[in-house]
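Internal tracking record. Fields below are filled automatically when a chain is submitted to the structure queue. Please do not edit lines marked as system-generated. If the sequence contains nonstandard residues, flag them in the REMARKS field before resubmitting.
Queue: standard
Priority: normal
Entity type: single polypeptide chain
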Amino acid sequence: MTVPTGRRERKKAATRQKIADTALRLFLERGYDAVGIREVAAEADVAVTTLFSHFASKEALVFEQDEDFEQRLAQAVTGRAPHEPLIPALRREIHALVRHCTGDDAAPVRRLIDASPALRKYEESMRLRHAETLATAIAADPGLSRTATASRAIARFVIDAYSLAREAAEPEAAVDEIFRMVEAAWEATSPSRRT
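SYSTEM-GENERATED OUTPUT FOLLOWS
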């Protein structure tokens, strides 16, 4: 996550984190559906309008690192070293995200999400948005020379790799296994292989 530099930005980031931490604590203690937005705001000692200035919805409180994850995926494309192949850069980022989301402290949050249809639906929409952001970054890179369709397909594969690996018995090994297939798909979309 980017560290805010100015005092005001640091204060906003601290408020945002306090709201997210409070919401997650309440959701884990009492259940997602049993806790209302007003309760979260009161417990975090902020106005409801302040809560909504940081989070667009109740579901977004559970996925407070959503924007950071989305930016990291795009940065894996745009921030890689010149001439560095794309797929290894994406594999490294997915490994990092999977490690973050499969730690022991992540299990209660995963159970919370799995138990709530609203959170599962939100997570799916978030995954589709992340895939579109990643596809846009891939398609915009002139050195990659892939069609919009190929860029979108690879982005979906990468996002699905994260989801599948996170649920696997051995997440790290699953990332590597899935990325061998992603690499093959990427190679198959090479301009030199098009007919």
